[in-house]
Design a protein that fits this description.
Layout (H helix, E strand, L loop, with lengths): L39 H10 L2 H5 L18 H19 L3 H10 L8 H11 L8 H12 L13 H9 L18 H9 L10 H25 L4 H4 L3 H13 L5 H31 L4 H5 L10 H19 L2 H23 L18 H14 L2 H11 L8
Length: 405
Amino acid sequence: MTIDTRSLGFGSGERAIFAADPWTSRGRLFPEAGSLTRSEFQRDRDRIVHTTAFRRLKHKTQVFIGVDGDHYRTRLTHTIEVAQIARALARAMKIDEDLAEGVALVHDFGHTPFGHTGEDALDEMLKPYGGFDHNAQSLRIVTKLERRYADFDGLNLTWESLEGLVKHNGPMMTKAGEGIKGPVPQPILDYCEIHDLELASFASLEAQVAAIADDIAYNTHDIDDGLRSGFLTLDMLEEVPFLASMMREVHDRYPTLEPSRFAHEIMRRQITHMVEDVISVAQERLGTLKPQSAADIRGADLAMATFSTEMAETDRQIKKLLFSRIYRHPDIMRIRAGAADIVCDLFRAYMAAPQEMQSHYWVSHMPDLSEAARARHVGDYLAGMTDTYAVKAHQRLFDRTPELR
């Protein structure tokens, strides 16, 4: 793999011509005066960090429930790692680091307690009312549910940050208006009626690097946490040729290295190789496209920031290893079943007695809401819960709560 740092602005001091420009942002839904000390994307990033939703990530599951130990990743530590990799990629490509970081920091806001288990359970409960999608929930949080400012609900983020949040994994619909991966979640469609995020195009390169940084981060740290938990062993990593080569490299250089350091040396090499692979692919595709603006990135026929064919196969193999050895392990599945029961029990309880919800989620006119509106209100409440809050809420309402360990 060869990376030419002299062309396309990579590694040089100037901003790339295809970078998103905070000084020519498409603006905010509710106009605001600019800042004397920060760019618009810096302001977005700072607003995201100061939210309640960001703080809640520290007690939301990534893979392992918090009671399993203090050293496992949570949604918060995962998010910070994603942001670090996104900034590194953005700096290498000379695009806007603050926008890339902001998209990385906000990308998991909509996740429920108990990780994807909680999302699947809440989606099942909300199926009659439009279902649940964590990406759509992230948009609801930053445009409606956060209540911090006198002049508007949400954070009033720039168009570019909202576009990155919604489309960081690629276009959501065809130019003919059909959903690419099934129906587009209704909350996203509703928001686009008042603030069009152009769902048929790619997002900025900044959002794209945040998305691929997510893959790099969890492919690496789920292996690290898997080794710490004992669900994975170093021998199992040899099922993936890429990881096996990393292990041989580390062993040849440090033949007597203790296991914990050995594992870390593998992980750091994995991140480096994946980051450099993305940069190399981006450089090649940008060289072909020759974009003259951020709009050219959005109008391209393919993503610029992605893995090569070879690294994409490695990514597939790593995910297969993680699913077979960790995500689908009988012990994890047993815990997941208990977590799903907690979410489903709470949903039914709050639908039957919404006054049991705390803070502003219980409002005096709740009984007058339609069933669908009440269900979405309950869904917002449940999605905002941390793991610990959900367990305590269940213990308060039920005689028996599943043991999540």
